[in-house]
Amino acid sequence: QVQLEESGGGLVQAGGSLRLSCAASGRTFNMYSMAWFRQAPGKEREFVSVIDWSGGHPYYADSVKGRFTISRDNAKNTVYLQMNSLKPEDTALYYCAADRRPWRLYSSSPDIADFGSGGQGTQVTVSS
Are 64 and 46 within 8 A, CB to CB? Predict the structure, then answer.
């Protein structure tokens, strides 16, 4: 079982930037793709971005493409989400999650069910 702890959220004005971090422990981190999801109040959890076990094949939701960048440091068991040009509609609780199966690649939006539940999340609030 992997334990995940997200951090880096906060309040930022539209157009600003934040960098989220997700520290993982409990199993072999570098065998699993990692993803970021988000959930706004009253809405379902939605996919944001995924990266494979080696740090390759990043994939983004259309809503964040060109603004967000996912990366990982396997030596630190950490995955990151650099968020630039933030918009009010990016306001949500952001979660990272580990793939339930190792060595799996994604070339499109993954099914949320393919990933674990994630940590407690980190709140991102973008003011207009």
Answer: no
